[in-house]
Amino acid sequence: FRYIAEIGSSSLVGHLSALAVTAQGISIRTNSFLNVMWSATRMGALVYYLTLVGDKRYLELKQGFKNISTVIVGIAVLFAAIVFVFTEQVVAAFTTDPEIVPTVCNYVRITILSVPFVVTRVMCAAVFNSLGDTKTPMVAVLVIDIVNLGLGYILIFVANWDYYGAAIAILAAEISGSAFLAFMLSRNKIFREAGR
What we know:
The chain is 84% helix and 0% strand. By secondary structure, it is mainly alpha-helical. Helix 2 (18-54) packs parallel to helix 6 (115-130) and helix 3 (58-85) runs antiparallel to helix 6.
């Protein structure tokens, strides 16, 4: 489904203005740099979680998840705030074209708000993976793709919001995926009953 969603997403991009496509490209570069950091953090947390699950130390798993997530999401909020405040300087690393910069800055300011939600989703997925559940994180990705495609279609084609619609769809999709995974983690029997 992920490949089908990518094809659908690409078809939406074809209906955006050239400025919007440029804004997306630069935003993807900015967020990709941050995603490398979150992926490294996720791997470290996953190794720690796997050790705890292997030893059946579920209370420590739950507490470790809370502690690590609090710190990492806090760092993500800080990074998002820095990029949000200094968007022009970040964008200047990619382009100084006066016709492009305002559009790119607006797009980046919206999409950078998704970073704490991406990090929350990544950290929740690490717990599920450590418990041997790889299906639930994949369902979260499916939720993200469906929300992004559905809302993107509505905001781009129906509301004619161009890049604003694309950016808002990305933000809403990441919020949805993060909320879904956090909810599913709260319903996970091992995680829920740890410490009772």
